[in-house]
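Notes from the 1:1 (GR / supervisor)

We went over the backlog. Supervisor wanted to see one worked example end to end before approving the batch request, so GR pasted a single chain during the call. The sequence is below; no edits were made to it. Supervisor asked that the structure be written out right there so they could see what the output format looks like.
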Amino acid sequence: ARFGGADRHPGWPHVSSASSPSSASSTTSSSSPSLPTSDRAEMNRSPLELGYKPMEHTAQGKSSAASRYGAPPPHPSVVSGTAVSAPRKGGLRLNSSMFSSEGEISLRPTRTANSRGANSAQPGSPSLSTAQDSAKSDQKLTKTAKKKANKKSSRQELERQTISLLEEWTSACDEKEAVLCVEDMNSPNFMSDFTLLVLTHAVEKTDLVRSAASDLLAVLHKAGQITVEHFIEAFESMMERREELRVDVPKVDLYVCQYAAHALSSGWLPLKTFYKVFLEGRLSPHLWQVLSCACTMKGEDFVAKCVSDSKVPLLQILPGNSRSIDDLLDTLDQQGLAFLLPWANLRSGLVSRLSTPHTSQDVISWLKDMTKPEWYEQKEFIMLVSTSVIRAVSEMTTLAEGVDRTVTVDKSLSEKEAELMGQEKEFLQHFLSDKSSHQLHCVFALQMLCHSLSFPKGLMLRFFIYFYEMDIIEEDVFVRWKEDVSDSFPGKGRALFQVNQWLTWLQTAEEESD
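Structure output shown during the call:
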């Protein structure tokens, strides 16, 4: 029955008892209560005969139901296109979604934005405002989370592309394709990490992969995509992590030094910039290893020229507590790098000649035959000559075997020392006269020798006096040495303690003479 009573569909609108039938069937059953004939005739009439009209469409395109059968009139929100917020008491909740295009009422349950049973807030109510603020806040948080996720995803993608590029480069070595791949990454801020990732990924692979990684960086540097700074940052980072990396790669120190040697040999890593990583003894053994690897790749002449052209202060590469010229020569000899100081093999011969009867001119002639004129301008050579003279004179007198170095030496020994030093005056003046910079190197050589010998009592002061009285070192050079506050050479504090009183006298004497 289309217009059933008690058995009608639960979603159907209520119908008043005056106008709606009470039975679900067009004919009553035997158990139904008897009805007047007029009522039965009324029930058997068709909907059109009863006055039912199809729903009419409003100007807004929405439908409105006739209220003749108890259907509530459309809620204003239906006309405006919004859902009804609450049902009519005892009736059906209507909204525009319940009306078909033909104007019929749909019997499907209504679905609203609040279909889970929560009460919908009316526009302008506090609860709606709070909900809107909360929604905006959630939206901001969602955007932030998405940005972080995208950033993380983007970095992971860059790392994946880097590894893929290295693998493709190892197999194909296509320079143009490698450059294009990095361009496609379009992430200049990632290139420092890119360099580190390439080196770290390759370090635990084969020699072929490590060599390919070095070649790749050389190509990308030529293309202007990575810089020397990127490489140095990656090198330092790997050196800081070498203990951790050594667990899986026992030879990680060697492999990382080979990376640097390859860059140095390829000509894109300037030694004058790179050596600063190793100053003051920091990672100093690794510079010698880098140079040794470069020597294997390009030969001794190439490495010697790099060191000479870059003016690398080799002494300052040594740790602070062992920075004498003897320490440097010993280190280079152990590392197979004695060729960096071609006059290094002169040390033993020079001390031997100075320790036996000789004339200054004889030793000068011997050195002239064994050296090149340009060596005389090298700081290390001047320090070698100065150290050799001081050692030869003192070891025959005040530092001879059996002499106590912790007490004031016997007067006879100090007099003998002064006599021998007088014999070497001409020899030293040949290399130091009229060159205050060479004279300053001579004073520093004395300081480092005393430091390496734990400052024998009075040795520093005695040689200061010899240098001054024999006109080997000029007065202003002593003052420059005193005022030098750098830590380039160790032992300055203890050296000043021994000679400070004499320096005060020297400055006072200069003022009086002026």
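Supervisor's comment: Strands lie at 56-57, 63-64.
Batch request approved.
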